[in-house]
Amino acid sequence: MSKQLVSLRLKDMYAIKHALQLQIQSKKKRLEEIENVPDIPEKEQLVQDISHESWLAQNMENEILDFRKAYNIH
After folding, report:
1. Residue 50 pLDDT level (bands cut at 50, 70, 90)
2. Is 72 left (phi over 0), alpha (psi -120 to 50) or beta?
């Protein structure tokens, strides 16, 4: 898979970050619901998804900070 340059507006970056945060919250809530139920294969996938989406949200936050710094937006 090759890398491609994608232009996003600041508004788009905030929307992506917010959507990721909502997904993380939803999956954490689901994980809490099934925490004490034994033998549910969904748990492992949820943990992996939460970890990955948290990384993506942090990456998006870093991109937002870089964008704001580059264009001197306060």
Report:
1. very high
2. left
